[in-house]
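JOB MANIFEST
job_type = single_chain_structure
chain_count = 1
residues = 208
[input]
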Amino acid sequence: MRIVIAGGPTREYVDPVRFISNASTGEFAFRIAECAKKKGHTVHLIMGPACLAKIRGIKCVDVETADEMVRAIKKVYKSSDCVVMAAAVCDFKAKRIAGGKIKKQSLWRPVFEKNIDIAACMSKWPGKKIRVGFALESGGLLANARKKMKDKAFDFIVANRISRKKSPFGSGKKNFLLIKSTGVVEKYTGKTKAEMAAVIIDNIERLW
């Protein structure tokens, strides 16, 4: 199977040196890629900025912005069998990027607009693919994840919660929901991202 995996954060610049982003480390995408490769699948990894070593035998395309990421996905989408959208794409971007570094004494204020929704765009592209999504919520986890899955035509979605006390980012054991388009909800407690990656690949293979 040919699996495209998008991971890591995106950066959206407000001037040549400053940007908005998020705390995603890209680890989940890497663990999924590793698991898929071990099981004999062809993996194409598209990564936002992440301080992780490249995985031998896996082609990786580095991107920064959401626009760069969607272009990279579109290049390989047609020839893929499955797309895993593990990337944490910024929801907003600057309406206008300053041409030079904004001085701290400046009264300039950035104006933001909604960014491209890659998963929503992808759901309208032709061709039958297995699509896997991710949802991170601070409230209404199940309801919001189900809505996202339906709106963006995911076959299943992996969801977890964020709070001041519990961060889903980085390594360590986390709690997850795996929600299927059939209505089935599976709970996973105290799992590492490598362990959860194996669950994700198993479910992809069953759909395949």
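[summary]
Residues 33 and 55 are 8 Å apart (CA to CA).
The chain has a mean pLDDT of 92.
exit_status = 0
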